[in-house]
Each structure stands twice: as structure tokens, then as C-alpha cells.
Amino acid sequence: MKNHQFAIEPVKFSQMIHELKVIHFYNDQMSKLSPALLFKHLLFKAFVNDHSQALKNFRLHGLMATPDQAADNYLDSTQNLSTSAFYNVALQLWHFEVHLDFELDAPLKAMKKMRLPMVKVANPKAMTNKDVLHAWYLMLNTHTKLGQTYLDDLASDGYYKQFNDLPKPLFIDGKAQPVFNTNHLIHEVVYVESPLDTDKDGERDLLKTDIIRPSETNHGVKVPTLFTASPYNMGTNDADGDRMTHNVNKPLTRKQPNNYTYQDVESHADPTKNIPAPRAVKGHAKQPEQAFHHEWTYTMNDYFLARGFAVVYSAGVGTLGSQGLKTTGDKAETVSAESVVQWLAGNRTAFTNPSDHIAIDAWWSNHNVAMTGRSYLGTLATAVASTGVKGLKTCIIEAAISSWYDYYRENGLVCAAGGFQGEDADVLAEEVFSRKKSAGDYHRIKPLWKKQLAKITHDQHRDTGAYNKFWDARNYLKDLKNTKADLLFVHGLNDINVKPINVEHSWKALKDVPVTKKLILHQGQHIYINNFQSIDFTDMVNLWISNKLYGVDNSANQLIPPVTVQDNTKPETWNTYKDWCNSQHHITYHLNDQSLDPESCSQAPLSFKDYVDKKSFAKYCHYLPVWYHDLMSSKKSPLTGNKLIFKTAPFKHDLKVDGNVKVNLRVKSSQDIGLISAMLVDYGTAKRLTISPQVIGFQSIYQGYHWRKDDLREFKYQKHPTPFKKIVVSHINLQNRHNAYKVDDLKPNQYVDVSFELQPTFFHFLPKHQLGLIIFATDYARTLRGNQHISYTIDPKYSSLVVPVYKK
């Protein structure tokens, strides 16, 4: 195990003593004890479930302090305490095993190897009382083998439960502690009135909003809120979505050339104009009329319910229990989620039910809100952040879309999110329109919904793949300059669903916006990372939102690095950087026959085709892993003539690619249509990280006392070496050489120049590996699959690959 802890706040010794006193680990009378006896008293206090002196002694006797002495014998035989003895005991309490994880004669060596924090003492053989207390405080806040701090470990055993005088909320080392009673959480429902009328019924759309808050809020404690806007929260219509999925086995077609500028496709739609007046309030209530007990939850939100935060879920317009229509990401959905934030901040009206006009305030809220969530959920957090809404203090944005065009399209092409060939904005709208699940409600709204769905299908222009007003209305990048909230972004470098270009564009759009922003890039695909062993992500979020929502002065902005990247070459390794996609160093490679050369290029044209026989076509459509393998492999296959593979010479030293690799091509198509795909590949036989994080501790993360659990996960090496790995891939329609809305002419067998950037990455090449570039046409996983008789020719003399590299 390697421990990367970014969320330990370096506090003064006086603050350590104060906090240890608050949580009853220390009192002034203990200052008279010898270091060994002080450590013993601290350990006894930690054995919270051993209620007798005999059991505490028995527990202590089960721990080893030296290679040949149990902890009780050692501590009873001396007044001195060595750092080796202290950390031998600590390692065992952190769930590390003797002989497996460390040796009793060298605990400090294991501590250093696993990157566990240690105190520096003047005399390692005789710690002072101050050393012991400093080491104990650090020990409480150190991550254990089970992926949480030792203090969290103790809390899940009931350490805090035994005290009635703890402040609520409670912060130790700058982070909120699980002192709230999760056995008595309050579950209630309100209906937030939005400034929308998307279903045109003459009344503003009401949004069903589910609230989970600590019972302590009924006794005067005001708490901030974690709000997750999840269109999936009220159920999905998966069968309907499957039936609507578009056929992708169809040809690429020619588009009529135009001279569009951005002004021709700019959207000015505003769904808040010309809407009905607000409902007349007929009374006020403090208690809602509706409760709920079974809900979809996000484990990180659950973690914070025990720590003095309310959690709110709302699926938004067009979902079960709410009013309005789904619109797949446009301004209406932004306003929908924004409205809930406004209510939580005390600036919007909600009602106890949809009909009686009895208003209810979020009286338990301290009016500070964070938005959380991944994918569509994080997308709406990005959207709401771009409004600058009052009360939204921060967002934890994971794998989020910043422009829906970059999700369903690319450079003038219909380009599916990985794993969802044939899905589009209309399919997603149908899937999340959960009002269908109420038969009576759907009966009344069905004609209007069918009309709305048909409009989405028409306006998304699936026949052209062009950027138009529909997609411009779903581009949050235009408004990110309005952001007032501090932002923590998380994204997978291997995410083939919400591609990394989305977080890259957000990161760059916020460059000059005066908010604090952080970025974490992991090696996963479309996943959450709050249950990883090697990084204290949940503690980082705790530090972050304790600062943003409670105003705790904990140095969160300084402690959390600007950019944190998980290394792709070895497990449990995270590196920090000042920026991403801003490299000033580039290597330009020229295209040779089968090689990439920084000095010279081929003189002869290089050609490939797109068509494969019908049997191979059917196989590749149904078995994408086979297509991927045959595409990247140099061995003969049905794809041998359908690609050009270029490789660098084996690297003599490590190389880190930082940002967007750029492809410059002079290319011609045999027809008046064409697309080019380019894939960056790591060639070199090696054991690589697993595609998904592996469960290494089933339900071993405890989120509070008698509260929910989560699996502990980590990326490990694959069992067997592999010869290559896809890094990134991108595509372009040859009729969209300048941008996604201007359509260029394309004539058969006439060279055109095209330049486009691949998806951004941060990739570590090891020595002896080769960087590979594959040029091809149809991407069976993403583009239309026309299997057309088209051939392409590249002129290497005017083609190149520009690679941004990281240098310190």
C-alpha cells in the first residue's frame, strides 16, 4: 500500500491539545504520566468497545511493541517509549499485519515505504510527552489500511457515541466528525417552485425535492447542504430508451457546404421569459406533509450525513413527482436545479404539496450549498455553477459534461459516448422522463411530451452531426465566466463516456475566473473514487467543504494540490502538478511508413480503405474488443488494409504526454465525403493497471456509527502482460475542417489539409515503450458504421504529429 494523504492539516501543538481535550482523549492530569504510561492511557481510551480493565489489558496484550514483547509487557516495564514501539502498535491498530505489511524490527522503514506520516523526535529511543501527544494526534488522523482515518475507525466503533458534551458540528484537524445521529435522520419532501413553465399548463413547474437532514436540526443546529441534482433519481424508462436507440449501421452522407459563422448558430433561448406569475402563498408551515424512506443515495453524501450536513436530491423538471418536461441539458434544466439551490439559500419558495399553496422555508439550513455528483449529476452542477447563483459555495464535479455537443458529437460527426452507440439527446430525454411512471400523470401529459420529444429529435440534427442552436443552448462553457463557487473537478483519463475534453474545456474556461479550482485525474473510466485505498479523496472533500460550507479555517485551498494525477504505470501512485494541458514543450513527429520520426518523413503517399467484408463487419459490430485488438495489432487481420500505424522508436527515457496531441494531415478521399479517426497507443509489452478498480475490502469502509458501509477499491496490475493500450482517440468529418458548424466542400481525390486535437491526456510512457498513432476511418465503437467503399490517401510530406510533453 502507498498512502497519499493531502488532507492532513498541519496545526499548532496547542491546537492539537485543545482538540484532544474536546474529544476526551486528554486532560491536564495526564501530563504527569510517564511517556509509556501516557501512551497506555491513550490506547485504553481507544479501546471503546472493551468496557472492563481486564478486556482492555487483553486487547493490549494482543499487540506487539517489539519483536519479542507484547505492548502491555513493554509499557509496564519502562517509563520510556521508543518511536519503534509506538509505530509498531500504531501499524497494528491501522490494520496492517506483521510479516505481511511490515516487520516488528523495522516499522519506520515500512512507514516510509507506505508514505505514512511520522513525527520527528529528538530522541527516537525516548519520546517526550509532547512527542507522544503529537504522534497520537497524527495517528488519529492517518489513513489506515482500510481507507479511512484511524479516528473515523474509532468513530465507527462508537467512540463519539459515549459522550454527550461534544459540540455539533465538531471539527478535528479541520474536518467534520461523525457526531450526528444517523439513526434518527429526518426524511421529508417539499415542492420547489421554479421560474419555468415547460409543460405549458399556465402554472410554474414544481420540483419534487427530497431532503435528508440530521434530527439535531430540530433543536437549533443549522447545517449546510449537499445537493445532488439527479435526473435518474425517480427511475428511468430503459425499455423505451432501447426502442428509441438510433441505428448506427448507416452511411456517412454529404452535407451542403455553407459559410456559417458562430452568430448563425448562437442560441439566445430563455425559458424563464413570459412565464406565469408565482403562485399566491396561502399560508406557511414549518413541517412538511410528506416523508420518504427508500431513496437512491451517493455514498459520499451518506458519509457527510453523519458529519453535520443535510443531503438533498431532486430529479428536476419532467420527472416523477415533479412537473414540466425533460429537455436534456438546456437552460430549463439548469434553472430547475438552480431553483433548488435558491430555496436552500432562502431565496425561493417551496410548498408542502402541489395544490394547497402552503409555503415552507429551509429553516434548518445555514444557506450554504455544495453540489455533488457524477455524469449527468455533475453536469448539472457545472451548469448551475455557471449561473453564479447565490448560496452555491462549491461543487464537487465528477465526470461531467461541459458541452453536450462534446458528448454526442465531435468535429461535425455523430459520435457516441463510449458504450452507448445509437444513444442521443432524444433517447436520454425519453429514458429520464419518469413522469411516465405515473399512469394518470402521463395520460394527461402524453400528447405534449410526444411533441416535445419529436422536437428534440429534429433539432439535434443527427443527420448532419453539426453544431447548431440546439447544441449551443447546451454549452455551459459560454457562461462559466459567471462562476462564483469554488470547484473541485474529478475525471477519469480513460473515461470513454464523458470524454476528458469536457473537463479540459471547463478547466481552461475557468483559467482567469477568480475562484479556487482543483483537478483530480484518475486512471478509471466513468467511476467514483471516494472509496480508493491509496488517496484520501473523501478526506480532501471533507476538508474542502468544511472550509466552504462551515467557514472552517483549515488551509483547504493550500493543502489540496492544483492538479493531482494518478500514474498509469504503477498502482497506488499519485503525483501533483501546477497545471494540466498547458505544456510549453512539444515534440513534432513526421509520418514515415510505419514510423514516427522527428527528423524526416516519407515521400510516397500512404493509403488505407474503410470497407471490410460483410462477415467481418458483423463481427466487429457485435464484438468491439475484437475490433479494438485488430485495430491496434500489427498482425494480419481483416483490418490490415484499413489503417495506417506509425510508431516512434523505443523511448530511452520516461516521457509524459501532457495535454492534447495534435494531428496535422494532408488527406484525400475517393468520394465527396469522408471521416478521419486518430488513435494514440502505448506499444510495449507490460503489466498494466486493471480497467476498473478492484474490490480489496468488501464493505470495509464504515461511514459512521451504525451507519452505511462501502467497498474499499484500488487499481491493481492485470494478471497478464498486454502488448498495447489505447490512450485516446478522436474523429473529424472532412467537411468540417475549420469548425463544427461551417461545412466545407470536399471533392473526390483532391487533397485537403486538416488539423485536429485528440482527446486530452496525461500519459506516462516507460522506457522501451513506443508511442503509436493509428489513422483510420470508421470507429465501430463511436461513429456511424456505413462500411462504405471509400479509400483515403495521406501525403506524409505535409503531415505531422505534435506531442505536448511534461517537463519540470
Examine the coordinates and then state which fold CATH places here, giving the name of the CATH topology of the largest domain: Rossmann fold
CATH H-level name of the largest domain... which superfamily?
Alpha/Beta hydrolase fold, catalytic domain
CATH architecture of the largest domain: 3-Layer(aba) Sandwich
Which spans have pLDDT < 50 for at least 5 consecutive residues?
none
**Count of discrete domains:** 3
What characteristic shape results from the CA principal axes?
A: globular
- Spatially, the strands of the biggest sheet line up as 8-11-10-5-6-9-7-12-13-16-17-18-19
What's the total number of strands?
Answer: 34
Biggest sheet, in brief?
A: 13 strands, mixed
* Structure class: alpha+beta
First and last CA, distance: 27 Å
Range of strand content = 15-25%
| CATH class call of the largest domain | Alpha Beta
Overall mean pLDDT: 96
- Structure annotation, total helices: 21
Write down the Rg. Answer: 29 Å
Helical proportion? 10-25%
Keywords: Aminopeptidase, Hydrolase, Protease, Serine protease
Protein name: Xaa-Pro dipeptidyl-peptidase
Subunit structure: Homodimer.
Function: Removes N-terminal dipeptides sequentially from polypeptides having unsubstituted N-termini provided that the penultimate residue is proline.
Summarize this entry quickly:
The protein is an alpha+beta fold and 808 residues long. The protein is 24% helix and 23% strand. It has 21 helices and 34 strands.
